[in-house]
Amino acid sequence: MISLVWLAGALLAGGAALAVGWPAWRDYRARESRDLNAERYMAWRGRAPRGSASSMSEGMTLAERRRLYLAAGIGLLAVVCLAAFFAVS
Asked: DSSP 3-state assignment of 46?
């Protein structure tokens, strides 16, 4: 019976990690895609910066990074709960 509590905890923590981390990851990827499209458009129009070949990428915002760290911590909790489930069953 106690093993089912650990399994439920693992499922809840995994779902919470997904709910916390997915929006931050989705927003980051969408912004990267928009930046890449803008960079391609500027190059097509002949107005791309000539000095550096680096991308316009700014990376993750602080809020996105925090959300992903929180999601990773909750995901680690889910793995611990899953290991406890296997240990007691």
From this structure: coil
With cut-offs at 50, 70 and 90, classify the pLDDT of residue 34: confident
Asked whether the predicted pLDDT for residue 72 surpasses 80, the reply is yes
- Residue pair 19/80 in contact (Cβ under 8 Å)? The answer is no
d(CA 56, CA 43): 12
Which pLDDT does position 31 carry in this prediction? 83
Main-chain phi, psi angles of 14, to 5 degrees: -65, -45
Q: What is the dihedral sign for C-alpha 25, 31, 33, 39?
A: negative
In degrees, rounded to 5, the angle at the alpha carbon of residue 48 between the alpha carbons of residues 45 and 53 is 145
User: Average of pLDDT values for 46-71?
Assistant: 78
Residue written as tokens 């927003």?
27
φ, ψ (nearest 5 deg) of residue 84: -65, -35
Global pTM value:
0.76
User: Half-sphere exposure of residue 70, counting CA atoms within 13 Å on the CB side?
Assistant: 16
